[in-house]
């Protein structure tokens, strides 16, 4: 095999590993306390304060079910994401702009590890929780930012309704 063919084949193999590396990489559970940092879409919540659990199903057809959820301003909820597929999925909460920027970063660095309280990485057949206090009204988003999943439409919306008077 000539050198040029070898370099081309090697480059393809390395690229494939980089593209799919994040998908199969294990994400270890958080071992440090959650840092409660205010975000436009809320702040990390206390599990004891979770008023309800909202089940979200993730599948290999690159969809969340349900794709839209509603919560009330001030409500702390547990988002429980169940991966019913055969590949790694994740759920990340944010604004559309934040998710777009994070997805672009994931494309450039697919093996990067990240662990924030507004995201959960879920292996096939497993589930992951996000406990979040939605303390600001508005329209927010959630998505799977694993390269290719976001682009395939693995997204959803969260409407945070104003507090009841």
Describe this structure in words.
With 165 residues, the protein is α+β, with helices and mostly antiparallel strands. The chain has a single domain (3-27, 39-161), classed as Immunoglobulin-like. Helices cover 21% and strands 35% of the residues. It contains 2 helices and 10 strands. A 5-stranded mixed beta sheet has the order 1-8-5-2-3, with no helix packed on it. The chain has a 5-stranded mixed beta sheet with strand order 4-10-9-6-7, covered by helices on one side. The N and C termini lie far apart (75 Å). The model is unreliable at 5-30 (pLDDT under 50).
Mean residue pLDDT = 85
Beta-strand percentage range: 35-45%
As residue ranges, the low-confidence spans are 5-30
Judged by helices, strands and strand pairing, the structural class is alpha+beta
Q: What does the radius of gyration come to?
A: 18 Å
CATH architecture: Sandwich
Overall spatial form: globular
Spatial separation of the terminal alpha carbons: 75 Å
How much helical structure, as a percent, in the residues?
Answer: 10-25%
CATH-assigned homologous superfamily:
Cupredoxins -  blue copper proteins
Helix run count? 2
- What is the spatial order of strands in the main beta sheet? 1-8-5-2-3
Largest sheet: 5 strands, mixed
- Count of DSSP E strands? 10
- Secondary-structure element pattern, one letter each: HEEEEEEHEEEE
- In total, the number of domains comes to 1
């Amino acid at each position: 095999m000539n050198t040029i063919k070898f370099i081309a084949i090697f480059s393809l193999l390395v690229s494939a590993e980089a593209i799919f590396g994040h998908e199969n990489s294990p994400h270890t559970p958080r071992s440090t306390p959650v840092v409660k940092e205010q975000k436009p879409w809320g702040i990390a919540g206390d599990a004891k304060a979770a008023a309800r659990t909202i089940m979200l199903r993730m599948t290999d057809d690159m969809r969340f079910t349900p794709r839209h959820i509603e919560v009330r301003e001030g409500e702390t909820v547990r988002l429980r994401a169940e991966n019913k597929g055969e590949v790694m999925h994740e759920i990340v909460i944010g604004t559309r702009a934040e998710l777009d920027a994070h997805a672009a970063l994931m494309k450039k660095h697919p093996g990067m590890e990240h662990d924030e309280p507004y995201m959960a990485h879920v292996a096939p057949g497993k589930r992951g929780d996000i406990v979040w206090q939605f303390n600001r009204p508005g329209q927010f988003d959630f998505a799977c930012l694993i390269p290719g999943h976001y682009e395939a439409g693995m997204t959803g919306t969260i409407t945070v309704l104003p507090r009841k008077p």
